[in-house]
Amino acid sequence: MDGKRVLIETKLKVFLAKKKNPDLNEALTPKIQQELIERLIDGTTCAIVDSLKDLQHFKESELLEERENKIAEIKNRGGNEAEEMKKFDLEVVRQIDELVMEQQNHLSCAHVPLFKTTSDPKEIKIQMEIFEFISSLTSLLSK
């Protein structure tokens, strides 16, 4: 376990240095960093993030296909493409926001530090960075 801890700590330091995001650095206090490392050691959090990424990829592919079908449908019947696509795209954004909230909820339930359901763009950006970090460890920690 100590080898994993050292690996995660090192990867986290490198990640934070590369990101140079003051909000992320401020949010990830030494205490929060240790809580995050604890969550990552057994691999469960990485598995959750991996599953969430798969679900997100599936949803994005589904929405893209729906959008392409909608464009073809509008062109075939000669509708107002700009107006109808604006409505459709707003619905897509709503669905993506819903997906983000579901991901936040899953990670919050898994006690991943700094994850909670929020619509605050600054907090979401920090969560995205942490999600990216966890995702980057998946292949390393599953060995």
TrEMBL record:
It comes from the Eukaryota. Pfam families: DGCR6. Belongs to the gonadal family. This is Uncharacterized protein. It comes from Panagrolaimus superbus.
